[in-house]
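Lab notes, practical 5.
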Amino acid sequence: MRMAAGAPTRHSVGVDFWLSLSSTYTYLAASRIDALAAARGVAVRWRPFTLGPIFAELGWSTSPFVLQPQKGRYMWRDVERACDALGLRFKRPSVFPRNSVAAMRVALVGCERSWGPAFARAVLLANFGENRDISAPSVIDEILVELGLDGALVRAESESPAWRPRLRAETDEAKRLGIFGAPTFMVGDEMFWGNDRLEQALDWAARSRGR
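Output from the prediction step:
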């Protein structure tokens, strides 16, 4: 998959950015990762995956932020504070978590090309900054058109036999790696979980250069 940010130097070690478009903390990390990685000369590979099958294996029917109301209340306030600090728009979604499978399939196509990170950021903004239904084809198409793409054509490609199985394959790979939430940053075999571990992951990758 395409290295989407941070021009790789000769001996750079990249970061795999495992993201979910239904994840609040992914919204925060996606807004920060490119600039922070570029400043360190670290390449980033954006890797969309779905949390539903991972949660199901843990016996959860939905997000732990829904299953544990106290944790959910804290999360919403925490994200609101973080968005304020980062200058990000925030509007609590009327539905959480939203079905993001169709958008994630499109994001996978984009992450093989140049527009994947921009699409992912736009979907996250629509979800958590504008309270738009990111499962709706019309919303996905509008975002793609804003990126200069043919929405219906790209969506059809993402649902084609060549692409449709890819999201499941990426999710299976995430499970194999032991990933249990989003965002997760992998530097080789080193795992860093959560938006608040982004800088640590990038610094680890930068220090690993030349080893």
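Observations recorded by the TA: The mean pLDDT is 93. The chain has one domain: 14-207.
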